[in-house]
Amino acid sequence: MADAPPLERNFDASMTKQRKIGAKHPRKQNINPLQKGIADFISAHLPPSLFPQHALSLEELASSLPKRYTIYEPMLLLPLNAFTHPPAWGKLYDSLDHDQRKALYASIASAFARYGVTHVAMNAPIVLTDTQGHENRMRSPVGLVPLHGDFGPPPSRDGEEVQPCRDDFEQAFWVRTVQNHGIVQIWAPLYTMFSRGNVTEKARILGHGSMFEGLDEVSLCGEAVDDVAVVDMYAGIGYFVFSYLKRGVKRVWGFEINGWSVEGLRRGCVENGWGCRVIGVGSDGRLSTSVPELVESLRDTDRVVIFHGDNGFAAKIMGQVRAALEARREWTSIRHVNLGLLPSSSSSWDDACKIIDKDKGGWLHVHENVDVQQIEAKGREITATVERYWTEYASQRTDTELGADCRHVEQVKTYAPGVMHCVYDVQLTQQVRSNVS
């Protein structure tokens, strides 16, 4: 499948088609579909007498209309300033009544019909608290504004961890995109966030761009990539899970608390051709399928096993899984743990160290929001903390030297003014000491 990233356009409406000198027809503006949809609405629904009030002609307004948009099939996603900039457009938009705005959104959707668009929404950033001020642990997109089309029943606001059922999944509106050499991702935009900015980190796992150790035979000391496993402590809809699978690891064990994200991940696995098992985790840590039953039924084609519940039970669960698979001589050592929670994943560092293979070591990929002036200092802090956990939980043989080393810091994207989303690649090492004469 060819790579087809989310469709985004940023046209300059002042660009015009070049015509031969002496052409009989006037030059036409080359406006993009978003501008066309808005301009078509204005022409069809607003009287010309309205424009002198705003000191702007229809032609001048059309040339300055917003240009940016993103398509996640079949949804058109507009930025926050789509109806406020430029000011003349914002003033005109504010004057529209409810029915006029509905007609506007329908006109915009119609302009994008050739792209398969059926729904329109306006974007809003993910927030760390919900509408009641509670921590948004499930990272739900509480600010997404549906404008056109049926997005499904509105999310419950009674509690941040209300989990969906099968009927909810069937009623919801789902979208998809293709990134990173054909990887399909699927999610329900009313209930689950999608971060397009993570595309560079996904590419890094795939081996493109910046350094990413531990998924080649050299850094694995001769061990093949398809002989190792990965744990993703915050699996989401499969942001990094799918990149690890595409790279060729044997299996990814994931933990995710949001049922909408779990279903999106499961659908994405089906679309990409990877077998996926979903195991529920109760509030007491009990599994919906016992570890012996899971191990007995597990097949090589089950490339993903997602535990739907709190990852605070991750170390205990993975310890039980390892013991059961080792008894069957089917265990695959875990060499990577991905910790993709912002603003900090520190609550899971200790469990991550318990999960990494104690005899071979491995890598933690620690995602953090960091003050741009403190990136190096934060790296030292993370490494020291992780090393303390690692030396506490790993083998304590007298001939073994344990350590942690921050091998690389990837600056993924700006999260807020003065704040950078960074990924710290921390290698957990275990070396046999040389005999001293």
From TrEMBL:
SAM-dependent methyltransferase TRM5/TYW2-type domain span: 181-430
Localization: Cytoplasm
Pathway(s): tRNA modification; wybutosine-tRNA(Phe) biosynthesis
Listed GO MF terms: S-adenosylmethionine-dependent methyltransferase activity; tRNA 4-demethylwyosine alpha-amino-alpha-carboxypropyltransferase activity; tRNA methyltransferase activity
Chain positions covered by the region annotation Disordered: 1-25
Alphabetically ordered keywords of this record: Cytoplasm, S-adenosyl-L-methionine, Transferase, tRNA processing
InterPro entries for the chain: MeTrfase_TRM5/TYW2, SAM-dependent_MTases_sf, tRNA_wybutosine_synth_prot_2
Superkingdom as given in the UniProt entry: Eukaryota
Listed GO CC annotations: cytoplasm
Signal sequence region: none
Keyword Transferase assigned: yes
Reaction it catalyzes: 4-demethylwyosine(37) in tRNA(Phe) + S-adenosyl-L-methionine = 4-demethyl-7-[(3S)-3-amino-3-carboxypropyl]wyosine(37) in tRNA(Phe) + S-methyl-5'-thioadenosine + H(+)
GO terms (BP aspect): tRNA methylation; wybutosine biosynthetic process
Function text: S-adenosyl-L-methionine-dependent transferase that acts as a component of the wybutosine biosynthesis pathway. Wybutosine is a hyper modified guanosine with a tricyclic base found at the 3'-position adjacent to the anticodon of eukaryotic phenylalanine tRNA.
Family: Belongs to the class I-like SAM-binding methyltransferase superfamily. TRM5/TYW2 family.
Protein name as it appears in the record: tRNA wybutosine-synthesizing protein 2
